[in-house]
Amino acid sequence: MEASEAQYAEFEEKVKRTVYLDNLSPQVNESIVKQALDQFGNVKSVQFIPNYVESKNVPQCALIEMENPTEVNAIVSDIAQKPFMIGGMPRPVRARKAKMEMFDDRPVKPGRTIQFRWLEPNDPDFEVAKKLKELAKIHAVEAEYVLKKQLEDEEKLEKQHQESLKATHKKYKMIDSVIADGTTRQLARGYRLRVADD
Q1: Is 2-102 a domain of CATH 3.40.1010.10?
Q2: Does residue 26 have a pLDDT over 80?
Q3: Which of the chain's termini has less CB crowding within 10 Å, N or C?
Q4: Cα–Cα distance measured from residue 140 to residue 145, given in angstroms and rounded to the nearest whole number
């Protein structure tokens, strides 16, 4: 009994050191999350929460364990005030302190018992359960569609970002070549401007 109480107390401390992030990009992985949160302190572990309602099971939420609760408070406060950058792009990420129910590996609370039963068709709760099952199916279809659109939008955004970087790089190369071949000095003489020496 004492061992289970000690295990549960240890788990409660872990929950206090953990921050919950959602609205993550489906392309985000553990190293990206660690790199983004290292500015707040030491990231001890990253656990993505499985997405059971979508056929592709692409996690968009994560539990990140930090070194102490102060770092968790800093993350929650900072993300509430500023856009959260992942991979050079802002994301509508939300952060909040983790709760025990978010962990699928949580230990059983000492003294707690769980009861369950099968519902028969004549049970009054049977219709409610049936409606919930149908709603879960509808939600899964909607969520899959939203995920597909989000992935398409992110691919377009990434492509635009790459094209913009290439165009900027091309401009800088052109400016460097103009400076290197002496064209700027010729233009300066033509327009009677003074050019500072390097």
Answers
A1: no
A2: no
A3: C
A4: 9
